[in-house]
């Protein structure tokens, strides 16, 4: 077969049918080929048995690739009315010629000029392309990094990152190519509902997302201080409402609680009572039988799209009902947002070509809307199970979940892995249940009848990840493989069990907060005519709702809520003060000596505490009589500093931290119990992750107050498991400063804390036990 003409000459002298074939298949019909008059040498080659089959497969593969590229092109140009008019004027020969020339020019720039020879070369190229495309699916199935869009190449020469696209399921899960008719059988009802909705709808979702801030309001939020007010609710207790805008400062709890007032999406109204029924008791009132008292008050705040900080989450008591409440809120937000996009797709499809309107601005710069930060894989597993239960109306109408088997394999746990004789406190068992791997991230795409797990981030509605999982994908400045554009349009941030991140690495949380709601570096095929104006103005952080749940109040967690949350609707923080403290749970008769450290400022506390310890506390315990002394150190950096000092002074001590090997731990515990080592340095993170019972303690020193208040009573009560010596020989010494007010109140109670901080005395003594 002779060489075909290329370039612009090909479009000339062709019939309408030939031009159509050229536009569809990117090549001229073989009938129209002109054979050169010069005879060519005949080459004889042997073909394999499956040559015809491979050629056919490669041809079909080429067609699939052409279609996918065409759909990707449509996705990037879907907002242009000119492109729509060009498709409608398909009859025009002049436009067909221009398209043909442009397509040939682009093909000519990609292929070598001499590569238009025989069929052998073309089949070889097609077989190579087929091999490349055939390798992609197994890699994506085996590696989570590629399947969830994690390991990406951020080469600036590439306009799009292939690992963040979803070619296989693009048509099924794409919001831009689906319509309400395909998603919901009651399309007419949805249209009637949307047409009857007024500008100021009572739906909290529409009120929050449709609000367009003015520049004066944004400047006021970012510069002025917040005004606050207090209120007391029956279950949550003392609430602090704060907002820069005065009209968002207060919130009252409705006495009557009706499901219709919550504006839940259709499937959730019927599924929520069934999913939540095991948390309900017979004492619940009929009016709010679908919510527990705690869920009712929490969801009332969540549904107003205010930021919420709840520092009384307990894995044993209320952890699961809180998880169900925020899962309901997040899923309700996603279903409403997607339904709005699908409805506007149908409206825009029926719109006359050439008309432009801003009524269809219903999206962000990227698709992910909800980011859920949880500490372990087990937490992500439970969240996904809640989502599936909320979307399944009944047994007949079950939701289609893709990659479910793989998800259970990677996020589930084997019950045989846990030793049967391992005894730990109940709160430890509740926190570390299931798969406790802390490096994960997974994208979830949701439509009303289907859910896709391991969806690429730019095709996901919800991202569930750990702080470490987010840190490894965000990366640091200078790294080639990093991406955080998918965080640009997060509308809801849920940080659950924030106290555990203090034991993991709090820097990962801070790093995440610095990269959320930033303008993306790439457009990622977004239709800018559908993007909300606040997102285009880089005001998305003022619309983001942050839900923060923790088991305790800590200055670092408070800083996240106060310095990184800018919601224009305001904030709500639960601020209940502890009345008794964990010292009331100490069962051994023990004198507790609290010694105050005088520091000039917060930055000098670390050095002041160390100097106070080596000058005033440590000399009292150097005597051999004060043996079996355990020094509890919350900070790892303080632990290293003390360890180095003990080595320098050649003190008789041993040490255990979270990085100590198991054999060294056994030796250290044994030597401390037998009295071979006078001191034992113990880090808080080791105690958090292991919770070993340290035997042989006679003298206990808290170098700093523990992060978890119940660790104080737990360590004090370890003395009763030591031996039969007289209780009076046991001692407990605590170092604290005025900057430890929250931790001190959690240990001794609010009344004693006020007395200790206001008193001029630096030493305070309390005795626990039978004669307290």
UniProtKB/TrEMBL annotation:
The keyword Phosphoprotein is assigned to this record: yes
Residues in UTP25 C-terminal domain copies: 582-766
Swiss-Prot/TrEMBL keywords: Developmental protein, Nucleus, Phosphoprotein
Database matches in InterPro entries: P-loop_NTPase, UTP25, UTP25_C, UTP25_NTPase-like
GO cellular component: small-subunit processome
GO BP: embryonic organ development; maturation of SSU-rRNA from tricistronic rRNA transcript (SSU-rRNA, 5.8S rRNA, LSU-rRNA); protein catabolic process; protein destabilization; protein localization to nucleolus
Biased composition (Basic residues): 14-23
Location of the protein in the cell: Nucleus, Nucleolus
Domain UTP25 NTP hydrolase-like: 305-572
Pfam families per UniProt: Utp25_C (PF06862), UTP25_NTPase-like (PF22916)
Tree of life domain: Eukaryota
Region (Disordered): 1-158, 181-208
Biased composition (Basic and acidic residues): 24-37, 104-116
Record carries keyword Metal-binding: no
Subunit and interaction comment: Interacts with CAPN3; the interaction is required for CAPN3 translocation to the nucleolus.
Protein name: U3 small nucleolar RNA-associated protein 25 homolog
């Amino acid at each position: 077969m002779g060489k075909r003409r290329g370039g612009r000459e090909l479009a000339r002298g062709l019939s309408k049918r030939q031009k159509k074939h050229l536009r569809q298949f990117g090549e001229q019909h073989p009938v129209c080929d002109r054979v050169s008059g010069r005879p060519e040498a005949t080459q004889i080659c042997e073909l394999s048995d499956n040559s015809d089959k491979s050629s056919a497969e490669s041809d079909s593969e080429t067609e699939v690739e052409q279609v996918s590229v065409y759909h990707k092109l449509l996705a990037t140009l879907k907002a242009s009315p000119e492109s729509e008019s060009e498709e409608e004027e398909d009859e025009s020969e002049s436009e067909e010629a221009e398209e043909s020339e442009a397509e040939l020019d682009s093909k000519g720039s990609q292929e070598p000029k001499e590569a238009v020879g025989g069929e052998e070369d073309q089949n070889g190229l097609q077989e190579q392309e087929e091999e490349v495309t055939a390798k992609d699916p197994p890699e994506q199935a085996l590696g989570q990094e590629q399947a969830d869009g994690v390991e990406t190449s951020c080469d600036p020469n590439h306009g799009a990152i292939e690992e963040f696209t979803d070619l296989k399921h693009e048509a099924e899960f794409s919001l831009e190519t689906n319509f309400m008719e395909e998603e919901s059988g009651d399309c007419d009802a949805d249209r009637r509902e949307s047409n009857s909705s007024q500008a100021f709808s009572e739906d909290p979702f529409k009120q929050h997302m449709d609000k367009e801030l003015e520049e004066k309001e944004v400047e006021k939020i970012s510069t002025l201080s917040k005004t606050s007010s207090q209120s007391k609710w029956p279950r949550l207790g003392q609430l602090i409402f704060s907002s820069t805008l005065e009209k968002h400062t207060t919130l009252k709890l409705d006495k009557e609680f009706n499901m219709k007032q919550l504006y839940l999406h259709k499937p959730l109204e019927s599924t929520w009572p069934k999913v939540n029924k095991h948390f309900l008791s017979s004492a619940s009132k009929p009016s709010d039988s679908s919510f527990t008292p705690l869920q009712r008050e929490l969801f009332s705040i969540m549904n107003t799209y205010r930021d919420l900080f709840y520092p009384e989450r307990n894995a044993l008591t209320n952890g699961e009902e809180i998880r169900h409440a925020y899962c309901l809120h997040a899923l309700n937000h996603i279903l409403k947002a997607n339904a709005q996009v699908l409805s506007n797709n149908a409206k825009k499809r029926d719109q006359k070509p050439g008309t432009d309107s801003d009524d269809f601005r219903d999206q962000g710069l990227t698709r992910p809307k909800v980011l859920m930060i949880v500490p372990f894989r087990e937490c992500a597993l439970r969240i996904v199970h809640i989502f599936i239960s909320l979307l399944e109306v009944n047994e007949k109408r079950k939701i289609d979940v893709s990659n479910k088997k793989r998800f259970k394999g990677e996020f589930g746990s084997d019950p045989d892995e846990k030793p049967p004789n391992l005894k730990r406190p109940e709160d430890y068992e509740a926190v570390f249940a299931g798969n406790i791997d802390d490096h994960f991230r997974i994208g979830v795409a949701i439509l009303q009848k289907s859910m896709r797990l391991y969806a690429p981030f730019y095709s996901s509605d919800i991202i569930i990840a750990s702080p470490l999982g987010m840190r490894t994908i965000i990366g640091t400045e200078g790294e080639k493989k990093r991406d955080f554009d998918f965080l640009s349009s997060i509308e809801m941030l849920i940080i659950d069990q924030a106290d555990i991140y203090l034991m993991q690495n709090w820097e990962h949380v801070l790093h995440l907060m610095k990269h959320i709601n930033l303008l993306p570096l790439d457009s990622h095929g977004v239709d800018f005519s559908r993007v909300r104006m606040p997102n285009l103005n880089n005001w998305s952080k003022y619309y983001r709702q942050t839900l923060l749940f923790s088991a305790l109040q800590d200055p670092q967690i408070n800083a996240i809520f106060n310095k990184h949350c800018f919601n224009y609707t305001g904030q709500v923080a639960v601020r209940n003060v502890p009345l008794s403290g964990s010292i009331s749970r100490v069962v051994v008769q023990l004198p507790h000596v609290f010694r105050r450290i005088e520091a000039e400022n917060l930055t000098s506390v670390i050095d002041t505490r160390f100097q106070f310890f080596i000058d005033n506390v440590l000399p009292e315990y150097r005597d051999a009589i004060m043996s079996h002394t355990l020094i509890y150190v919350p900070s790892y950096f303080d632990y290293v500093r003390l360890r180095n000092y003990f080595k320098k002074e050649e003190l008789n001590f041993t040490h255990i931290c979270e990085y100590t090997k198991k054999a060294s731990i056994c030796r250290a515990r044994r030597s401390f119990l037998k009295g071979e080592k006078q001191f034992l340095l113990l880090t808080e993170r080791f105690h958090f992750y292991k919770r070993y019972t340290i035997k042989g303690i006679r003298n206990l020193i808290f170098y700093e107050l523990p992060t978890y208040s119940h660790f104080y009573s737990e360590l004090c009560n370890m003395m009763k498991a030591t031996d039969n010596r007289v209780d009076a020989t046991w001692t407990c010494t605590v170092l604290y400063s005025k900057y430890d007010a929250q931790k001190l109140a959690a240990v001794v109670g609010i009344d004693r804390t006020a007395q200790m901080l206001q008193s001029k005395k630096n030493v305070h003594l309390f005795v626990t036990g039978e004669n307290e």
